[in-house]
Write a structure and sequence with these properties.
48% of the residues lie in helices and 0% in strands. It is an all-alpha fold. The protein has a single domain, classed as 434 Repressor (Amino-terminal Domain) (Orthogonal Bundle). Helix 2 crosses helix 4. The relative contact order is 0.19.
Length: 91
């Protein structure tokens, strides 16, 4: 059985807020196991886990893979800025 996602702190940190949104997307998708998401995305389970941890800026490939693995629309995430004014999702 997979471990539950770590609850992120309520903070104004934009990276944490972005990660919280990724966690919400995964929850809406029925909390698929990271191993299944890895199969669908081509990313490692560690990369997927780090994506929703809110500790570092993500590459577009990671965001795209995570969103696709959750059945989401990557295009709707492409213009999002996890840290407005400081950085964008790395492409």
């Amino acid at each position: 059985m997979a471990r539950p996602m770590k609850q992120l702190p309520r903070t104004n940190d934009p990276l944490v807020a972005f990660a919280r949104d990724l966690q919400a997307l995964r929850k809406e998708a029925g909390n698929p196991p990271l191993a299944l998401m890895a199969e669908h995305s081509g990313l490692s389970t560690a990369t997927l886990s780090n994506a929703h941890a809110g500790k570092k800026l993500l590459t577009w490939a990671t965001v795209n893979g995570y969103v696709l693995a959750c059945g989401g629309d990557p295009e709707s995430w492409s213009a999002r800025e996890p840290a407005p004014g400081r950085c964008r999702v790395l492409r």
